[in-house]
């Protein structure tokens, strides 16, 4: 099971949320290099700028994808999704969505669906990210034979292990 560190990205700087407040922790590339030395293979990034429609951090993703795998949350338009897929970043899309995800079928392995309920799953994405805390939903998802990513705060008793856990 992968341990997936979570960072927030704003103005090309990495932050961690502590007690509801964002605290700067450094440059994303430096963090990625350090985490790679520790065996981390994937970083979960919440792009605060992308959530506001800004694409200022795309050069950061281009750099990071040369160091390790990243999955980016915050791309909410097809144009942003295409740009992220173009640099081989994994893209987290909230499901259900009105976006036409089938147009990205060539890069489906990089598509991650973020769901709040098991009924929101889609075949247009490869992996499923469930940030919720309901154990029954998590266990139901783990039985679907899909790669499931959970948050580190959820406790599960299933013999089936998730693909990874995002460390909040």
Structure in words:
This protein has 168 residues and is an alpha/beta fold. The protein has a single domain (2-167), classed as TIM Barrel, CATH 3.20.20.70. It is built from four helices and ten strands; from the N terminus they run βββαβαβαβββαββ. It has helices at 28-37, 58-67, 78-86, 135-142; strands at residues 2-10, 13-18, 21-26, 42-47, 69-73, 90-94, 111-114, 127-130, 147-151, 164-167. The protein has an eight-stranded parallel barrel. α3 (78-86) links the parallel β5 and β6 (90-94). α1 packs parallel to α2. It is globular and about 40 Å long.
How are the SSEs ordered, and which strands pair?
Layout: E1 2-10, E2 13-18, E3 21-26, H1 28-37, E4 42-47, H2 58-67, E5 69-73, H3 78-86, E6 90-94, E7 111-114, E8 127-130, H4 135-142, E9 147-151, E10 164-167
How would you sum up the global shape? globular
Remind me, CATH topology?
A: TIM Barrel
Write out the strand line-up for the largest beta sheet, numbering strands in chain order.
1-4-5-6-7-8-9-10
**Terminal Cα separation, in Å?**
16 Å
Order of helices and strands: EEEHEHEHEEEHEE
Number of helices: 4
CATH superfamily: Aldolase class I
- Over the alpha carbons, how many angstroms does the gyration radius reach? 15 Å
Low-confidence stretches: none
Number of strands: 10
Overall mean pLDDT stands at 90
């Amino acid at each position: 099971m992968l341990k997936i560190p979570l960072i927030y990205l704003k103005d090309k700087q990495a932050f961690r949320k502590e007690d509801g407040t964002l605290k700067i922790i450094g440059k994303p590339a430096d963090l990625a290099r350090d985490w790679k030395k520790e065996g981390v293979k994937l970083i979960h990034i919440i792009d605060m700028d992308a959530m506001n429609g800004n694409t200022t951090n795309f050069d950061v993703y281009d750099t990071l994808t040369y160091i390790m795998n990243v999955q980016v949350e915050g791309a909410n338009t097809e144009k942003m999704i295409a740009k992220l897929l173009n640099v081989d970043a994994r893209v987290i899309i909230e499901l259900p969505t009105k976006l036409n995800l089938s147009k990205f079928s060539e890069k489906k392995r990089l598509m991650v669906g973020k769901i709040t309920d098991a009924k929101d799953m889609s075949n247009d994405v490869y992996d499923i990210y469930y940030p919720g805390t309901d154990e029954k939903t998590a266990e139901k998802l783990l039985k679907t034979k899909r790669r499931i990513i959970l948050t580190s705060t959820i406790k599960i008793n299933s013999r089936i292990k998730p693909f990874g856990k995002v460390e909040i």
